[in-house]
Structure formats: C-alpha cells, structure tokens
Amino acid sequence: MKPAAAEPVRVQAAEAPLDKGQNPVWAVISTALLGGFIWWITGSWVIAVALIWGLLVHEFGHVLAMNRLGMGPARIYIIPFLGGVAKSQRLPQSEWHGVLVSLAGPAFGLLAAIPFFAGFIATGHGAWLLGAAVIAAVNLINLAPAPPLDGSKALGPVLAGIHPMVERVAMMAMGGLVVWWGFTTGRWILAAFLAIALIGHLKRGTWRPDGRPLTRRESVFSVGLFVVTAAACAGVGVAALMPLGNGSLPAALDIAGRYLGMGG
C-alpha cells in the first residue's frame, strides 16, 4: 500500500501594508509653510487662505471619489512650497473610475469658493471675490489636458480609445505647449512642475493605467462631464470677477497659474 502523498504547502503572499498617511505634525507645518510662502509672494492673506483652502477642498474631492470607488483609504499629502496630492491605496478598477476621480477634484473644489463669496457679502471687500476667482481659476487650469493635470486623466482614456498614439501625441503636445507658456510668462512653478511630469511620462514604459478601458458610452459621458465641469469652473470665476472689473481676470489667472504646480 502506497503512503499517502503529502499535500504541497501553500504559502500565501502577505498583503502590502496600507499607507499610514502623513504625520499630522508635519502636515500642519507643511501647510503653514506653504501658506506663509504664498502670503509673502502675493502680499494678501486672503489669497493665501484661498489657495490653501481651495487646494485642500480640491484634493478632498479626489479622496471622496477614491474611497467611494474602492480605492481607499485615500489620503491627502501636503508638500511644502508646492501644494498637495491625493493618494489612493489601490488602482482604479476601470478607466471610467479614473475619469470620475480626476473630475471629482475640480468639481468638488468649486465649493471652496462659497466662503469667499460670503466674505464679500459680509465685508464688501473685493479681495474676497478675487480669492473666489483664484479658486475657480486653479480648478479650471487643472482641467488642461496636460500630464499630470486632471484634464489629461479625464480626456486621455477617451483619446486612447481612438488609438494609443493619439493620446500620447495629444498629451505631449499640450503638455509641451503649457510648459512653454509657463516659462515665457514667468510661471516658473507651473512650468517646472509640468516639465518634470512630462519627462516622467516619456520615461515610463506603460502609457495607459491598469483597468478596463472605456466603453463608447463611457467615453461620451467622460467628455460631457469634462465640459460641464469646465463650464462650472468658468462660471464661478466670471461670477466672482464681474463686480471687480476687467482688470481682475488677468490677476486671478496669473495667481492661479503661478501656484498651480501645487495641485494634483
């Protein structure tokens, strides 16, 4: 009688530990450093508060979407003098989820403008409206289809559905254009941030993220949501700038452009 064969020992791979997040003390210090830097550059504490508050609400929109779509627990990380980024624990299950996460930041980020409209109603001081306009401008510029801004993550999968090379060429061309615009207009932080991102994309072997590609129906919805989000950002910005006069639009765009390298 043959002895019973021993069953093979199965070793289960240990799951990667979850990211514990940024140290709270360091997060507070980083936020204070960033806010103080913006206040020193702009000379306005209202603008500094608007950019910090707008950044946090924008990133929190990404976090909410990540957690809702099973990518959490997501967290916000503050980077001194640069801004913040929302990081998930898991990749999106599909490109559609990636689109929703990318657009959640600018869409939710517009809510940050509400206290600044309230501040203008209470005080009548135009700086509050400029703060609201800067928040809208940051979210609008973030929709530019240039890596790694939110616009590239929302429209990139749609272009990839036509052909992967269409996405690559379009994203690189738009990214190069924004970098050139940033350097030629003195927006050094934005230009350097995007230039580093473009180099990283060129070095990456895999262009598309993991996950199920967009269906045709999802592609249509992606473009529609992108247009609606961009229109909402522009609408909030116009509503804030109208009482201030024509000269406020360049100022809001300039402030937003100089410090957009903060967002992600």
TrEMBL record:
- What cofactors are annotated for this protein? Zn(2+)
Q: Which residues form the Peptidase M50 domain?
A: 47-121
GO MF, one term, reads: metal ion binding
Topology class, membrane: Multi-pass membrane protein
Transmembrane region positions? 37-57, 98-120, 127-146, 178-199, 220-242
Q: Which UniProt keywords apply?
A: Hydrolase, Membrane, Metal-binding, Metalloprotease, Protease, Transmembrane, Transmembrane helix, Zinc
What is one process in the GO biological process aspect for this record? proteolysis
Q: Which domain of life is it from?
A: Bacteria
GO cellular component annotations of the record: membrane
Family annotation (InterPro entries): Peptidase_M50
Family annotation (Pfam families):
Peptidase_M50 (PF02163)
Q: Which family does it belong to?
A: Belongs to the peptidase M50B family.
Please give the name of this protein.
Answer: Zn-dependent protease
Q: Which organism is it from?
A: Brevundimonas basaltis
Q: What is the lineage of its organism?
A: Bacteria, Pseudomonadati, Pseudomonadota, Alphaproteobacteria, Caulobacterales
